[in-house]
Design brief:
It is built from nine helices and no strands. With 284 residues, the chain is mainly alpha-helical.
């Protein structure tokens, strides 16, 4: 059984907002590399891929676009991830309350997982359009021929092309990624805190370093679950309109045809390098 602390939803809301800002600042450069690796086209016979891997992508991005190239599209998650994380913690708190008969009841890890899944449902309405804009901006190479001048211009053009449906393209895949991954995150976070708590002590008394370690490792477990649907989501959200008429099933068939199951883990190194520092933050 996991020990639970009674925390107000309002406190969860503001704590989540601050955590969202920290995550963006810590992880966006590697997120840009991840998205570029996930969306690069399959090399033609006799040719080499545009990026050979994580460090090759990093080198080429900095060489051709400068360090600022790693921060393309960051305005979208700064504006979107902050309320997204706030709503995430609010949804998690609500998910716990819905399963408790009394405020101080402990929850099993399975119940924590379900509360985390609810938080993933809550965040998708904010996360999906923010991810769509972010990914489209991240894959823009340097030079003068840019399709989008920035996040607002991207939203304007997407709305002009297909209305809100275009802006929310990829919502189903965002749900497929975030619902189980959020459940895994919160379950592993609480489990690791309990594992690190000495016998007779409370998890609320853990040192900052131990809480940071639990958060960082929970981020790794989160992305171990999230990366296959994330690959499909990135590919789908950055594709030209009409490329995948059958939705995510068409994307899945294309990705598996390219390099089998391995294709579902494109950007794995960048994701894992990003996961620990981006999630190693003290949470409530």
């Amino acid at each position: 059984m996991a020990e639970q602390a009674t925390i107000s939803p309002l406190k969860n809301f503001f704590a989540g907002g601050f955590g969202g800002v920290c995550l963006v600042l810590a992880g966006h450069p590697l997120d840009t590399i991840k998205v570029r690796l996930q969306t690069q086209p399959l090399a033609l016979p006799g040719q080499v891929p545009e990026y050979a891997g994580t460090f090759d992508c990093l080198k080429k991005t900095v060489t051709h676009e400068g360090v600022k190239g790693l921060y393309k599209g960051m305005a979208a998650p700064v504006l979107g991830v902050t309320p997204m994380f706030a709503v995430c913690f609010f949804g998690y708190g609500l998910g716990k309350k819905l399963q408790q008969r009394h405020p101080n009841d402990s929850l099993t890890y399975g119940q924590i997982f379900k509360a985390g899944m609810l938080s993933g449902i809550f965040t998708s309405a904010i996360m999906a359009p923010g991810e769509r804009v972010k990914c489209l901006l991240q894959i823009q190479a340097g030079g003068n021929k840019k399709r989008f001048a920035g996040p607002l211009d991207c939203i304007r053009q997407l709305y002009k092309e297909g209305g809100l449906r275009s802006i929310y393209k990829g919502t189903a895949l965002t749900l497929m990624r975030d619902v189980p991954a959020s459940g895994m995150y919160f379950m592993s976070y609480e489990g690791l805190k309990n594992l690190l708590t000495p016998e007779g002590s409370s998890a609320s008394d853990l040192s900052v370093l131990r809480v940071l370690f639990a958060g960082g490792m929970a981020g790794i477990f989160n992305w171990a679950v999230a990366i296959p649907p994330d690959v499909l989501k990135s590919r789908f959200q950055t594709a030209p309109e009409g490329k995948y008429p059958g939705g995510f099933r068409d994307v899945l068939r294309e990705v598996l045809r390219e390099d089998g199951l391995f294709s579902l883990y494109k950007g794995f190194n960048a994701v894992m390098l990003r996961a620990f520092p981006a999630n190693a933050q003290e949470e409530e």
